[in-house]
Amino acid sequence: MQVPILKQGAYLIATVQSALTDEDLKQLRDTLVLQVSKVRARGVIVDVTALDVIDSFATRTLRDVAYMIRLRGAETVIVGIQPEVAFSMVKLGLTLEGVATSLDLEEGLAYLDRKGRNHDQEVRAHR
Amino acid sequence: MPPKVILLQHTQEVSTPVEHVQHSQEGPMSGSRDVATVTQARLETTASRLRELVAHLRHQRAQLREEWARLITEAKLLTAMTKEELFAEATSVYDNYVEALETGTYEALQAYARNLSERIIPRGVETHEVVGIVLLLRDVLARSLFATYHEDFNKLNRILDAYEPAANRIAATVAVGFVQERERIIREQQEAIRELSTPVLQVRERLLILPIIGVIDPQRARQLTEQLLRGIRTNRAKVVVLDITGVPYIDSPVANHLVQTVEAARLLGATVIVTGLSPEIAQTLVNIGVDLGKMNTVGDLQGGIEEAERLLGYKVVLMQEPVAHPA
After folding, report:
1. Which of A97, A103, A104 to mutate against chain B (most B CBs within 10 Å)?
2. B22 and B121 assigned to the same domain
3. What is the CATH number of the domain that holds B115?
């Protein structure tokens, strides 16, 4: 099942609706990485609230997405990991290292806003 | 209370099978009637022997009950109860006992034993007392059977054949019921203690504290994780201060579990600050090689809360000198 990707201001929001196969995950990764420069997005939010299971492949793909998007000049934040899912991921040693995570969509947006403001300040300081 | 037929039957030393069948048909229970018709051909069935036994016990009820209550007092059992209570309880135990013998079903007795246990456990009645009184009753009844049938040894044997298994089963039922009730109460109390032992408290908007007192065993560690992660979700917390000042030591599985909890909290977008690590716990963590980069630790709870406030962007300002005695 395809994951819908919405553009909201300077951000892209991908909301996972149901369990994803490995193929779906790869497609999500490719689409996001392609789209992020196309629409000149500054941030990407992947909402995984609907997922009951996040396995090693999903974790690696999400991490790859975050790293690739950083190389393309934007920030990624994973939002909505359920408490049970979070703990079973950690038990399996899947900790999404180096990837920003937030409680939900609202928090994720706040995180990206903060990042953007800091970035603007830095740019201004350099001038 | 005992009907005349039973009395009559009782005075006769040797009762014929015909009489038994008649008696059973007069009786209120259809179950034993079925048994009687099926086994009509046989001379003495267990059912009919038990019936005779029950009739005997019903007839002697007042006397045997008195005797039993006297023995209980003599043996200094159930001292937590008054004499009246003891007698009332003895009466209902006696009736339930006889009923269980009569019907051969133990559900009612089991329910009664559970109910009785529920009432007497809070008053400090011990297991040996409950087992003791049931065994006393068994003996009192057996003695009365000896007294009644001492002239006819064969009959006494047959009656005992029917009585003993049933009586033992009853004793076991009551004892098990009591122990199960106690275990249930203990489980409930453990659950309550556990619930109380890991409070999740919100001290500011988006800031939770979890003070932990006492040893963390694996089960408590699991519960702690659950409460912490759920607390983050429901309070929309960004920072959690986990204070383990009151924890004397932790072993490596629990230490690993704590580290995993901290990581899981990060996946939910929250930062965990661990405070109050004792020298022993610090040593354990270093020995098992915890990646300290992942752990955000501060010396004491106060420091932890200050750090959390800093992360959340709070600034606490002293408005005026504190007043010793507020007016």
Report:
1. A103
2. yes
3. 1.10.490.70
pLDDT tens-digit readout, B108-147:
888 888 888 888 888 888 888 888 888 888 888 888 888 8
**Residues B40-51: pLDDT tens digits?**
544 457 777 778
What one-character DSSP code corresponds to residue A54? -
Distance CA(B250)–CA(A48), nearest Å, equals 34
CB contact under 8 A, A102 and B269: yes
When the pLDDT of each residue in chain B is averaged and rounded to a whole number, the result is 80
Rounded distance between C-alpha atoms, residue A46 and residue A65, angstroms: 10
Structure tokens at B182: 């106690």
**Residue B271: DSSP 8-state:** E
Domain that includes residue B114, residue range: 4-192
Instruction: For residues B70 and B65, give the distance between their C-alpha atoms in angstroms, rounded to a whole number.
Output: 9
Task: Write out the two tokens for A37.
Answer: 């420069």
Biggest alpha carbon–alpha carbon distance for chain A: 47
Least confident of A3-17, B29-43, B159-173, B223-237: B29-43
Q: Report the topology of domain A5-126.
A: Transcription Regulator spoIIAA (3.30.750)
What total number of domains does chain B contain? 2
How far apart, in whole angstroms, are the C-alpha atoms of residue B200 and residue B208? Answer: 7
In a domain, B326, yes or no: no
Cβ–Cβ contact A98 with B under 8 A: no
d(CA B297, CA B234): 24
